[in-house]
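Progress narrative, work stream C.
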Amino acid sequence: MSHEPGESPTKWVADHVRKYVESDGAKGHIFHGAPTLLITTIGRRSGLPRRTALIYGRDGERYLVVGSNGGADEHPLWFHNLLAQPQVRVQVGAEVFEAVARPATSEERPRLWEIMAEMWPTYTGYQRKAAREIPVVVIERNTP
């Protein structure tokens, strides 16, 4: 995902999230040609809800997202939050649901990485420049 030159990443993410929420996903679900969801984690330090938009893929009933952080050497804050508290709220289009998020296991990551890199090839470049293994996160809807 990209933003306008000189625009802070925080601003364009906040704008994307706001439009997504205000329109029940009608605006923002597809972003630069890719489907996006909103994930709300609980801040591991603040205890406050933190929401961000992420490109997602599917593996059966499971949703997949990538903790790319633009290829930075650090994991994104939302990833640290879900490690501390894996219960998350997800919005896909107009649908909102509770779920559990976890990093893919070392056994399942290669296959899931391929799914995500195929749908958003930029992830491959991010992985090349990052000094860490970029995590794939598996999101599974809570069952009633």
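Work stream C, second folded protein:
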Amino acid sequence: MPVERIATLILIDDDTRRRATISHALASHALHVEPFENVFELGATWPRAGAVLLHERPGAVPALIEAMACQNQWFPVVAFSEEPGVQRIVRAILDGAIDYLAWPALAADLALAVNTAIEHAASTGSAKLREVMARTRVSKLTRREREVLGGVASGLSNRRIGEKLEISPRTVEIHRANMLHKLGASHTSDAIRIAIEAALVQ
């Protein structure tokens, strides 16, 4: 995909000087950069298309994915940090980042990573995002709520789930209500879809 077709690059970094450096460097690569100190600054003003370049700290990628889920948005995420270790990179990728760069980086490398991320997102559609968002939502559940979700997604009644987990149908009902609330699911069918997307059931 040509660089000029990228609508926006959302840059999220709490370091003012680094934001200015990156914005200036990427301007020469025909990228429109919108810098933000953190994900909360975006509020509801997400652009229609583009990618996110995120200065990664512990928990930053899951927080960004959660914010996108709340806005029903999907942007491929390229994370970066100073001298990242292998475990840190792996964790960020598992959390939903498409790529990870070590900072400082050349502007050409940043631009290439952003374009590659967008091409990857275009080829895989929104399937990866749905999976990551679903896993983020499921991670909020307690172990018991997750077990109840698995039973619901398998088509079991409250009574059968209770028998399987050795708890009363009434207790299953309580866990089920809590599970639906935490998932942001209006109906059981929504919860089942989320479970499938999170690969909780096949």
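The first helix runs from residue 16 to 27. No further action is required on this item.
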